[in-house]
Task: structure prediction
Amino acid sequence: GDFSGQLLAYLSLGPIFIIVGFVTLIIFKRELHTISFLGGLVCNEAVNWLIKNVIREPRPCEEAHSTVTTKYGMPSSHSQFMWFFSVYSFLFLYLRMHQTNNARFLDLLWRHVLSICLVTVALLVSYSRVYLLYHTWSQVLYGGVAGSIMAVAWFAFTQEILTPLFPRIAAWPISEFFLIRDTSLIPNILWFEYTVTRAEARNRQRKLGTKLQ
Result:
């Protein structure tokens, strides 16, 4: 009968939905930066596992949750995951998809709204771990800090080390076979794909109209 608890329990499934979304996006888009983002999430989880097994701080109510994969709770993996995802996405929105001089108001607005939504979801998922007695406040707090630091470090690593290598990686025979592409030089991939698709559709429509005459 605890509606808040049920809602927070569903929200705590956020990492699973995000992973499924990433796998789906990679299958259909096959873009190197997206693959790198997923790689960062995997590394973030590995760091969380390492820290947990070094500190070995127990969960607040071990007997209340017999289905958890580990008895250690410091730091919270959910909190670390969500804050990595939110902070990296924030950096991607404002630094990778950088504005141009003719940026429109709506373009800026949706970035601000999306950033607020990302932070809100991260806060709610973090809070859910305490509310549902999976973690203490300190475990959630340190998870958020660890995830944020990892996000900044991975974003810097991707931008400074991996991005210059993307053109060469995209040119590998195996990359060409699997249609893996590099869009790192395109400031706003959504706008680019929209304009290219619209232009191609008009071109094909024009050719079709010519054949029918």
